[in-house]
Amino acid sequence: MRERWVTPAFILQKAPRPDLDKQELCGFGLTASKKMIGNAVARNRARRRLRALVREILPMLPVSGLNFVLIARKDVLTRDYAALRKDFLWAMKRLDVKTV
Question: What are the structural domains of the chain?
Answer without folding.
Answer: 3-94 (3.30.230.10)
